[in-house]
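user: Please review this fold.
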Amino acid sequence: MSDKRVLPNGLAESVFARVFLPGKLTFGLLTPLEGYPLSDTPTMAEHTALATLADDLGFAALWLRDVPLRDPSFGDVAQIFDPMVYAAWLAAATRRIAIGTAGMILPLRDPIAVAKQALSVDQLSQGRFVLGVSTGDRPSEYPSFGVDFENREARFRDAYAVIRTVMNQSFPIHQSSHYGRLDGTLDLIPKAFHARLPTIAVGRCGQEITWLAEHMDGWIWHQSDLEQLPTLISHWQSACGVQTFKPYGYGTFFELDADPNAPIRWGRGLRGGRNALINLWQRQRDQGVSHIALNMRVSHRSVKDSVQELADYVLPLFA
């Protein structure tokens, strides 16, 4: 990716510019910061200490998933805590690392409430918040909220329009199809700590890539096929335009092998020793991957040991 591309207006001074850098690759961690391969529910033991450690070691971001309800058939309840409440907690416990949602399920949430919560965390963290949004991946949750799963793509676009309006305008006038009307007599405060709050798509959100490129500041998808990744990134970059840098990243289940020379193993996630991973990630950086969010959920190895090894041997090669 050319380093001549520039960030969208209002993001150059924000934490977004530290997490997503043209021509660079940064690493984040998906919460909870522990492995629980034999259970659907983490212990959340030492989660604050591990978040602080990740901050001290130089990881770029902590990503919090939005899983409102436990579905035992799905097999994972994520970090248990509500992502916005948890984001505020982690922001208070850390100093530099970005805090992001991955991502808020907009069809199940009131968009004004999401905007209020996001801007509050952004202010309280002094601009370290990134709002990731999605449509979720669990159809079983939708009936509990009285929301139609079949129109989630349209509701997502509608909710996103409300969020951007109340975040970026004062006393806005806006008519929503699903969420209400703003007549210009009310204003949402606070506003963003910097010029505006960065927003990224997490997953496809039921949208075309061209729509995501037009409306979002970046895109984090799931681990992609190695052979297809360059084509996907090229499609994304073309949709964004040659002058604007809008990053592409991915999230993946991850286990760092204790043997630094262990080969990479693909499957339900990414496993391997650090040397093979370094080669892979250098190649993916050159292909245009800007950020990788590592989910230790499948790891049998201590997360503390894993992040320390990554910090000692991997992060310095990319930072």
Summary: The mean pLDDT is 94. The longest strand covers residues 248-256. The first helix runs from residue 16 to 19. The chain has ten helices and 13 strands.
